[in-house]
Design brief:
The protein has 738 residues and is an alpha/beta fold. It has 5 domains: 2-88, Alpha-Beta Plaits (2-Layer Sandwich); 102-186, Alpha-Beta Complex (DHBP synthase); 188-369, DHBP synthase (Alpha-Beta Complex); 389-480, Nucleotidyltransferase, domain 5 (2-Layer Sandwich); 535-714, Nucleotidyltransferase, domain 5 (2-Layer Sandwich), CATH 3.30.420.40. It contains 23 helices and 32 strands. The strands form 5 sheets. Strands 6, 7, 8, 9, 10, 11, 12, 13, 14, 15, 16 and 17 form a 12-stranded mixed beta sheet that branches. Strands 29-30-26-25-24-31-32 form a 7-stranded mixed beta sheet, sandwiched between helices. Helix 13 (482-493) crosses helix 23 (726-736) and helix 18 crosses helix 19. The longest helix has 23 residues, at 664-686. The model has no long low-confidence stretch (mean pLDDT 95).
Length: 738
């Protein structure tokens, strides 16, 4: 018999790992002790070498469902101790950096759901039921190691019955840190705009009645407040849009069960697995034509964001209200999620009733958004259930590195020792409140992991708030090019060592030549990407205002092709302006006043949407591309001609082809096909694996076309392929160089 010291690293805290080790050791008659530490989970065991090998084999073969083991380090202890039993010890509290992976929030598990609706169970209809395998984790975590006293649950002392469950090795809530019951746990309270009107279960009855009347409810969730209303009630949704100043951006809907999701959307097996997973994301799926929803849920598009309940409160509500409900963040654009009743009171004009609870949200966290293309995951927003995202590095970093991400869909990344950790979605850094949220998120990471940066990496764009913030710090600073980070991010995730063809399509990004890039081709490795192609530059008439008005982009392209004669053309774009407006804009075009150059494919989408009469102005990012998808016909296989001259892609023949097209479906379908053909052209030229990134590839139609044409196609699956993955790409570029 010998004494061994085991160190297990990975996602091993807050997932029932210590109880699992305890039970496994008891089954194999191995004594010792186990505890959480800054490294993960540590364990002393007393056994023979063969018994230890058997223990480790069973540990690796069947760990707890929510855990992920990165590595197990085992060493023989010099001093020998006789252990009379196996025990779970108090967590250690070292002041050094934390390497334990942060536990993620997960949806209600099957067993807890059964107990929730079992009248004989003492947690019947208890809104905070959870166990070692489900419930909030990251959002209530104050410090690592993950223990009850270091979470928001520290405010709730276990009652006698919960304490007995917690201490009973045969109970499934043995050492489950977040457990409680109606006697000792959090409580719900319902308010109108003036005062408290109800507590406890009766509040659900009042909410159900209000939903039927078309009212809007603020509901506190795991990571913040949502607004909900009846997704079949057009007047209620129009009211919600008016209050949120959200004229047409689609809403996500929550349904009670998978079969309800199938009534609204077309789901394949991979999409079902994503939607039904413990992470419970919003899934973007094909909307059925006969779906019983208000047309105001997702106007002018054929996609729907659908999700399943992931909290007991949501389950209880949808059990009583048997219709889909809209679920959207209870805030205004450019503002972070509300996490307290004091904050949500400032938005009382958005809601009629507010259901609050007294479990503190320590980390705000949005719902994650995913879609499926070719049975592979496309992560559009990484938040609840997916983030923080942890990567093990092949070797220790030379300097602690903080990457500040992009200005839109911002995330941050920290790298230290052999670890890279990417934050949940922070949002667009376009307001004072959003920058405060950025700084809160940074301080939270510094506190959780006891991290301090030796250097900061930012985007090259001088006007990004994340760049301005980085420049204001007294720290070594490195700037990297935006589109290279998109490619580097996917290269890093997929461990690609050879040269690749990188394709970065998005709305805009600061180029190495000072122009606005967004339709770029690169060749090289992670730390050495050379631009080998791009779309021909065109002018953005009105600069920033052109982003909200596709008609300005289209008119600029018409001026480029036909000069001032474009004003006399008859098409949807010119019809969207008055004669005097076009003459003024032509003067600005000629003189280059407030008309920066761009190669952006995102802006080309806008131009085609205008020329085909699909939309002339947009109210949210990516609207033109989403609306164009509903016009795509897979039976149309033709594309428009194009030329590539010294790496520059000439779009003029494509634009002329669109203008000559009498049919919207023909024009849109050929445009999508042409983009795929352009990428395929570079692929045949370079004969390399293809890595794609950038917000344009959130377009399911385009990404699906590429998946069908190129076998060696890669994109980010563990972080977003849009700007949400930029912070990881920034880190990857810098770490490759040391």
């Amino acid at each position: 018999m010998k004494n061994y010291h085991l160190t297990i690293r990975g996602t091993v805290q807050g997932v029932g790992f210590r109880p699992f080790l305890y039970r496994l050791a008891k089954k194999l008659q191995i004594n010792g002790r186990v505890w959480n530490s800054h490294l993960g989970v540590e364990m002393f065991v007393q056994s023979s070498p063969s018994e230890l090998e058997n223990f480790l084999t069973q540990l690796r073969a069947d760990p707890p469902p929510l855990s992920k083991i990165d590595d197990i380090h085992c060493q023989i202890m010099e001093s020998q101790t006789d252990f009379s039993e196996m025990t779970i010890d108090q967590s250690s509290r070292e002041e050094s950096a934390h390497y334990a992976t942060t536990p993620l929030d997960t949806g209600v598990c099957k067993k807890c759901k059964e107990e929730l609706f079992d009248p004989s169970n003492r947690r019947y209809l208890y809104p905070f039921i959870n166990c070692a395998e489900c419930g909030p984790r990251y959002t209530i975590l104050k410090a690592l190691p993950y223990d009850r006293e270091q979470s928001s649950m520290s405010s709730f002392k276990l009652c006698k019955k919960c304490r007995e469950e917690y201490e009973n090795p045969d109970n499934r809530r043995f050492h489950a840190q977040g457990i409680s019951c109606p006697e000792c746990g959090p409580r719900i309270t319902l308010y109108d705009r003036h005062s408290k009107i109800s507590e406890g279960g009766r509040s659900i009855d009042i909410i159900v009645k209000a939903l039927k009347e078309g009212k809007i409810i603020a509901l506190k969730g795991v990571g913040g407040f949502h607004l909900i209303c009846d997704a079949t009630h057009t007047r209620a949704i129009e009211d919600l849009r008016e209050r949120k100043k959200r004229p047409s951006k689609p809403f996500a809907v929550m349904v009670r069960e998978m079969q309800d999701a199938k009534k609204l959307t077309e789901l394949n097996a991979h999409e079902e697995s994503l939607l039904g997973s413990s992470r419970k994301p919003i899934l973007i799926a094909q909307l059925k034509k006969d779906a019983k929803l208000s047309t105001q849920v997702a106007p002018n598009i054929d996609k729907l964001g659908v999700m399943l309940p992931y909290t007991p409160l949501q389950l209880m509500l949808l059990a009583r209200f048997d219709k889909p409900v809209i679920v959207t963040s209870a805030n205004l654009s450019d503002s972070p999620l509300c996490a307290t009743f004091e904050e949500i009171k400032n938005y009382s004009h958005l809601w009629d009733l507010c259901l609050d609870h007294d479990l503190e949200i320590h980390h705000r966290c949005d719902d994650s958004v995913v879609m499926s293309v070719g049975n592979k995951t496309v992560l559009l927003r990484s938040a609840r259930g997916y983030a923080p995202t942890h990567f093990r590095l092949p070797s220790a970093v030379r300097k602690n590195t903080l990457s500040t991400g992009a200005n839109q869909k911002n995330t941050i990344a920290i790298s230290f020792k052999e670890h890279m950790i990417i934050s949940p979605h922070i949002g667009d850094l376009t307001s004072v409140e959003s920058m405060e949220h950025f700084e809160r998120s940074l301080h939270a990471f510094e506190s959780l992991y006891r991290f301090a940066p030796d250097r900061i990496v930012s985007d090259k764009h001088p006007l990004y708030e994340s760049t301005k913030w980085a420049k204001a710090q007294k720290c070594e600073m490195i700037q990297v090019q935006h589109h290279k980070t998109h490619i580097a991010s996917a290269i890093f995730e997929h461990h690609l060592k050879e040269e690749v063809l990188g394709v970065a399509f998005d709305g805009s990004g600061y180029g190495d030549d000072g122009e606005i890039w967004g339709g770029e081709f690169f060749r090289g490795t992670g730390d050495n990407l050379k631009r080998i192609g791009h779309f021909r530059y065109f002018k953005l008439l009105g600069g920033e205002s052109a982003i909200k008005e596709p008609r300005r982009i289209a008119l600029s392209l018409l001026f480029s092709l036909y000069g001032k004669e474009a004003i006399q053309l008859k098409n949807p774009t010119t019809a969207a302006f008055s004669q005097s407006e076009m003459e003024t804009l032509y003067l600005l075009y000629e003189k280059g006043i407030n008309a920066p150059l761009s190669s952006s494919v995102g802006r080309l989408f806008d131009a085609i949407a205008s020329m085909t009469g699909i939309c002339q102005k947009i109210s949210y990012e990516g609207e033109s591309g989403l609306r164009m998808e509903s016009f795509y016909d897979a039976n149309i296989t033709q594309s428009y001609p194009f030329e590539v001259i010294n790496g520059e892609i000439d779009w003029s023949m494509m634009i002329k082809g669109v203008l000559e097209e009498a049919n919207q479906t023909q024009a849109v379908s050929k445009f999508f096909n042409t983009l795929a053909e352009i990428i395929y052209y570079f692929y045949k030229q370079e004969h390399l694996k293809v890595v794609v990134g950038g917000g344009v590839f959130q377009n399911k139609t385009l990404l699906g076309l590429l998946s069908g044409k190129i076998e060696d196609l890669y994109w980010n699956e563990k972080v977003p392929l849009n700007d949400g993955g930029v912070s990881m790409g920034q880190s990857a570029l810098v770490l490759e160089k040391g």
